[in-house]
Amino acid sequence: MASFKDQLSSLVYSTDGGDQRGRQQDDNEDEARLSALDGIVRLRRETSGRKGKGVTTISGVPLPMAELRTLTQALKKRCGSGGTLTRQGMIEIQGDHREALKAELEKRGFTVKLAGG
Fold first, then answer.
1. How do beta strands 91-94 and 40-46 pair?
2. Which residue in 53, 81, 82, 86 sits closest to 68, CA to CA?
3. What is the domain partition of the chain in residue ranges?
4. Are 103 and 43 within 8 A, CB to CB?
5. Which one, 8, 15, 35, 38, has least CB within 10 Å?
6. Where is the composition biased (Polar residues) (predicted)?
7. Residues 58-84: pLDDT tens digits?
8. Model pTM score
9. What top-level class would CATH report for the domain 40-117?
């Protein structure tokens, strides 16, 4: 039987979607996601599933997840609004900021295309 200290130090519950080897799984998901991209960053304005609230979605950014997090923070600060990074590598910025985001991403060297409505 394990000691009381060992019983207290084990993982009981985690909100992470992966297993306890999450780092290795994240690296594999990053490689798969990056290999499927065509190098064009797409900006869309979406309202579906958000009770009429519009968000600008950015997909196809050819960066690993760690760099996407810092890019998300910089873009949110540039637009002065909230947003999030999804597990699929899509950035969502609250509001319609397509032109400002296009200018910022092109300044950073990405090929940007306005997609959708």
1. unpaired
2. 86
3. 40-117
4. no
5. 15
6. 1-13
7. 998 888 888 999 999 999 999 999 999
8. 0.72
9. alpha beta
